[in-house]
Specification:
By secondary structure, the chain is α/β, with parallel strands linked by helices. About 40% of the residues lie in helices and about 20% in strands. The protein has one domain: Acetylglutamate kinase-like (Carbamate kinase). The strands form two sheets. Strands 4-3-5-2-1-6-10-11-9 form a nine-stranded mixed sheet, with helices on both faces. Bound molecules: uridine-5'-diphosphate.
Length: about 230
């Protein structure tokens, strides 16, 4: 069992059955899944993406500068984080959205002390705002916050049940990889698990990453318990 885990959801996953925005019904279901992790004795940090609202690289152009576009992306992560924390609290899973970007009116400021204290009290910490810096994504934020908050593993939720040697949506003969080294994940151009910046941090600090399908019942609890599902990097 991992004592403290960081679970990363992309914005797209939080939009569930919708094309964008937030699927509160799905997030209520996720609250139940996360409760199983807490009942199993692990503490949990959730990093949310913002791609269901905006991705900086796509939004930039026609006068919108890259930094502004990335700031808009970060605002999307804040929207997801405050919504997710509300839905979790309503479902009885005590959660705190903490933003690394100052938005005092909307969410409490993330500080190391505050987050550690909330985790020790048994709250789910929902990290908002990514890293607070442009030109990176919430995958990099996931690794950075996992290191800062002394998590034992990063659990990256994806649409598929792990990493394949090629895109399983395009190639029916794609083969799932159960385990791979940090070096392999960083250097293999065909395998796009996470940003290279994120994987570089994982490699440098030897922090394992598990890529798995969180939308299957009990999978989050199983992976937090250390069961070999998905693909383990490291
Ligand atoms: N972003 C950023 N810095 C960060 C995290 C996110 O600038 O530390 C911006 C970036 O534009 C990114 C967008 O916010 O495209 C949404 O985050 P991400 O793409 O990671 O969301 P996901 O694909 O996981 O939903």
């Amino acid at each position: 069992m991992y004592k403290r885990v960081l679970l990363k959801f992309s914005g797209e996953q939080l939009s569930g059955k919708f094309d964008g925005g937030i699927d509160a019904e799905l997030i209520t279901w996720l609250a139940g899944e996360v409760k199983k992790v807490i009942d199993g004795g692990s503490q949990i940090v959730i990093m949310v993406g913002g791609g269901n609202f905006a991705r900086g690289a796509q939004l930039a152009g026609h006068g919108i500068g890259r930094v502004t576009a990335d700031n808009i992306g970060m605002l999307g992560t804040i929207m997801n984080a405050v919504a997710l924390a509300d839905v979790f609290n309503a479902a009885g899973v005590s959660s705190r959205a903490l933003s690394i970007v100052s938005v005092d009116q909307i969410a409490d400021q993330f500080t190391h002390r505050r987050a550690m204290s909330d985790l020790e009290k048994g709250h789910v910490v929902v990290a908002a705002g990514g890293t607070g810096r442009p030109y990176v994504t919430t995958d990099t934020a996931a690794l950075s916050f996992a290191l800062e908050l002394e998590c034992d593993v990063v659990l990256k939720a994806t649409k598929v049940d792990g990493v394949y040697d090629k895109d399983p949506a395009k190639f029916p003969d794609a083969v799932k990889i159960d385990a791979m080294s940090f070096e392999q994940a960083v250097s293999d151009g065909a395998i796009k698990v996470m940003d290279k910046a994120a994987l570089g941090l994982a490699l440098e600090y030897q922090l394992p990453v598990v890529v798995f399908d969180a939308m299957q019942e009990n999978n989050i609890a199983r992976v937090a318990a250390g069961e070999p599902i998905g693909t383990k990097i490291g």
